[in-house]
Amino acid sequence: MRTLALPVAPGRRLLVERRLLVVAALLTVLVLCSAFAALCFGNGWDHPADVWSALFGGGPIQISVTQWRMPRVLAAVVFGAGLGVAGAIFQNLTRNPLGSPDVIGLDAGAYTGVLVTLTVIGATGEGAVMAGALAGGLAAAALIQLLAWGRSFSGLRLIVIGIAVGAVLAAVNSWLVLRAELDVAIAATFWNAGSLAGLDWVDIDTPVTLIVVLLAAVALIARPMHQLAFGDDLARSTGVAMRPVQLVLVAIGVMLTATVTAVAGPIVFIALAAPQIGRRLVGAAGVPLLPAALTGALLLCGSDLVAQGIFAPVALPVGVVTTAVGGLYLLWLLFKEVR
User: Fold this and answer.
1) How many C-beta atoms lie closer than 10 Å to residue 314's C-beta?
2) Residues β-bridged to residue 6
3) Where are the domains of the chain?
4) Which residues of 279-307 are buried (b: 16+ CB within 10 A; e: fewer)?
5) In this structure, are residues 18 and 5 in contact, taking their beta carbons and an 8 Å threshold?
6) Is-contact 333 96, C-beta < 8 A?
7) Are 287 and 229 in contact (CB under 8 A)?
8) Which of 107, 116, 75 is nearest to 198 (CA)?
9) Does the keyword Transferase apply (predicted)?
10) Angle, nearest 10°, between helix axes 270-282 and 289-309?
11) DSSP 8-state code for residue 9
């Protein structure tokens, strides 16, 4: 496969596959087009020229575009990228296309943390909810690792145990909702569907910043992650400290998932589908991070646009659309694996 040498420092060059650059460029263009289309959609479709003017400080719909729609669109792009990278992390660690946070129960764990924060502790602030989601996700990950890690790492064992833990946590979540006060239960049930509606700049500034920092952090350890994906023996022979790298990657993946869950609720199947779609587009042996991030951003932004427009003026939670799309993808993936 042809590669290009990109200068990154004096005397140092980075070898990048040409197909990866082309696919990344195309996905970036599609993400930008999808985001701009989402900015054009409010109560109806606004003319692209008016939206373009609003972006640069003029026009009659400036407030609608910059204060109401832009936070939602930015959240869709950044949250989708975060979920795509979280899925890529766990699929590389488990070496299995079914290894994603929503399949192995981390979404359910983060949701449990939020419900405990809302219904048991009674805290409703943004910081408390985010802390609850992070605590729940990390606790679920720790439990799954404790049950799955034996003398050697097995991705399949982790997935099976994660599915079981997720099922138990789903039952706990249902119990927490049933025992909550009516208004809290209604809000929690709607929030569980996964929605980007009503987000403003105050809601997303901290989560977006945290996700960007986490994406930068995982980019720094991308190389040992890909070495782990090709087997324990290869990782050891190249000097990778397996257990510390695995723990750091799991922590980053959980924090990415929990941050999105704390703000928008559990948005399923983006983390499952985006890494594999990105991998197939670039023809990579492992699961590369950049295509996973861009594909996740495109899937979530496009799904949110569909959720707003398919039954307009009634808007669906974006999680309904991602569940439908992800279900079809999962059926295709299972059929392909069976064959």
Assistant:
1) 7
2) 14
3) 15-317
4) bebbebebbbbbbbbbbbbbbbbbbbbbb
5) no
6) no
7) yes
8) 75
9) no
10) 130
11) E
> Nearest to residue 93, comparing CAs of 299, 309, 252?
252
Number of other CB atoms surrounding residue 221 within 10 Å: 16
Q: Are 99 and 93 in contact (CB under 8 A)?
A: yes
For the chain, 339 residues long, give each residue's pLDDT as a single digit of tens: 465 544 544 545 444 577 888 889 999 999 999 999 999 887 777 788 888 888 887 777 888 888 888 999 999 999 999 999 999 999 888 888 888 888 888 888 888 988 888 888 877 777 788 888 888 888 988 888 888 765 555 667 888 888 899 899 999 988 988 888 888 888 777 778 888 888 889 889 889 999 999 999 998 888 888 777 776 666 666 666 677 888 888 889 989 998 998 888 889 889 988 998 988 888 877 788 899 999 999 999 999 999 888 777 777 888 888 888 877 877 877 777 666
**pTM as predicted:** 0.88
List phi, psi (to 5°) of 127: -65, -40
Dihedral sign computed on CA atoms, order 250, 256, 259, 264:
negative
Q: Using CA atoms, how far apart are residues 98 and 85, in angstroms rounded to an integer?
A: 14
Residue 335 to residue 339: CA distance in whole angstroms: 6
Helix (H) or strand (E) run with residue 148 in it: helix 126-148
Tokens of 183: 């208004």
Number of other residues whose CB lies within 10 A of the CB of residue 13:
11
SS3 183: helix
DSSP letters along 159-219, please? HHHHHHHHHHHHHHHHHHHHHS-HHHHHHHHHHHT---TT--HHHHHHHHHHHHHHHHHHH
Would you say domain 15-317 falls under CATH 1.10.3470.10?
Answer: yes
State the CB neighbour count (10 A cutoff) for residue 96: 18
Give the three-state DSSP class for 323.
helix
Distance between CA 63 and CA 19 in Å, rounded? 40
Per-position b or e across 196-205, b if 16+ CB within 10 A of its CB: beebeeebbe
Is there a contact between 268 and 102 (Cβ–Cβ < 8 Å)? yes
